[in-house]
């Protein structure tokens, strides 16, 4: 049975803050839906062609990271990841906290496995995201920092600087970060202390 996607469906998707529509081989679109998809630059993912063993990544940036964000979305989708883009959607000046907040909420509340944030240096978005208890956002600048952030800190949001690292190096950092697993053990004991601190501060 065919599933029809209308313009209203696309508008409702946009209202959720997502720019990714997951479909299957039985999905068909109305002409107005296709126009809205093109206008709003919605990414279409056919789940029959996506490696579902891969994780869901929510990604966001301010205007300084917009171009790198587009590059990473294409790069990650080519590897079979589900990528949820929460903005920004142009190079018009905007405020980095808005997108750091959106990514952190998706990781904490909406089931995203990991988040990626891009701004000019990677510092302010990490500061913002780390205001959320349970978020461990790390600004990474090379393979070692990316590997350590995952192995030792079980980081769940990667933050990179679009104006401090070139695009090819960012790809390497992303690959390293996503392929590295948390070691647990003595590192978990240290993270437990951070969790206890967060609980005390929330009282």
Overall description:
- This protein has 203 residues and is an alpha/beta fold.
- The protein folds into two domains: 1-49, no CATH class; 51-202, Ribose 5-phosphate Isomerase B, Chain: A.
- 45% of the residues lie in helices and 19% in strands.
- It has helices at residues 7-15, 31-40, 66-78, 96-109, 123-129, 143-151, 167-179, 186-202, and strands at residues 3-5, 20-23, 27-29, 43-46, 56-61, 82-85, 114-119, 137-139, 157-161.
- The protein has a five-stranded parallel β-sheet, with helices on both faces. A two-stranded parallel sheet has the order 1-3. A two-stranded parallel ribbon has the order 2-4.
- Helix 1 runs parallel beside helix 2 (31-40).
- The radius of gyration is 18 Å and the shape is globular.
- The termini are far apart.
- 33% of the residues are buried.
- The mean pLDDT is 89.
Distinctive features:
203 residues; alpha/beta; Ribose 5-phosphate Isomerase B, Chain: A; 2 domains; 5-stranded parallel beta sheet; two-stranded parallel sheet; 9 strands; 19% strand
Strand order of the largest sheet: 6-5-7-9-8
* Architecture per CATH nomenclature, i.e. the level-2 architecture of the largest domain: 3-Layer(aba) Sandwich
How would you spell out the order of helices and strands? EHEEHEEHEHEHEHEHH
Helical content stands at 40-55%
Q: Tell how many strands the DSSP assignment holds.
A: 9
Describe the largest sheet: 5 strands, parallel
Rounded Rg:
18 Å
Tell me, what's the shape?
globular
Distance between the termini: 52 Å
CATH superfamily of the largest domain: Sugar-phosphate isomerase, RpiB/LacA/LacB
Number of helices: 8
Instruction: Count structural domains.
Output: 2
Unreliable residue runs: none
Name of the CATH class of the largest domain: Alpha Beta
Strand content: 15-25%
């Amino acid at each position: 049975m065919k599933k029809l996607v209308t313009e209203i469906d696309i508008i409702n998707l946009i209202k959720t803050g997502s720019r990714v529509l997951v479909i299957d081989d039985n999905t068909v679109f109305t002409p107005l839906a296709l126009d809205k998809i093109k206008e709003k630059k919605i990414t279409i993912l056919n789940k029959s062609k996506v490696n579902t063993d891969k994780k869901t990544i929510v990604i966001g940036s301010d205007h300084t990271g917009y171009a790198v964000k587009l590059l990473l979305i294409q790069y990650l989708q080519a590897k079979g990841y589900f990528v949820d883009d929460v903005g920004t959607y142009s190079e018009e000046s905007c405020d980095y906290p808005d997108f750091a907040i959106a990514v952190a909420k998706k990781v904490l509340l909406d089931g995203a496995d990991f988040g990626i944030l891009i701004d000019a240096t990677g510092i302010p978005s990490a500061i913002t995201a780390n205001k959320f208890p349970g978020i461990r956002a790390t600004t990474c600048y090379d393979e070692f920092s990316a590997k350590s952030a995952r192995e030792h800190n079980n980081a769940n949001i990667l933050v990179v600087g679009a104006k401090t690292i070139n695009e090819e190096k960012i790809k390497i950092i992303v690959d390293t970060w996503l392929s590295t697993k948390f070691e647990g053990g003595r590192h978990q004991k240290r993270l437990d202390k951070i969790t206890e601190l967060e609980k005390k501060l929330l009282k």
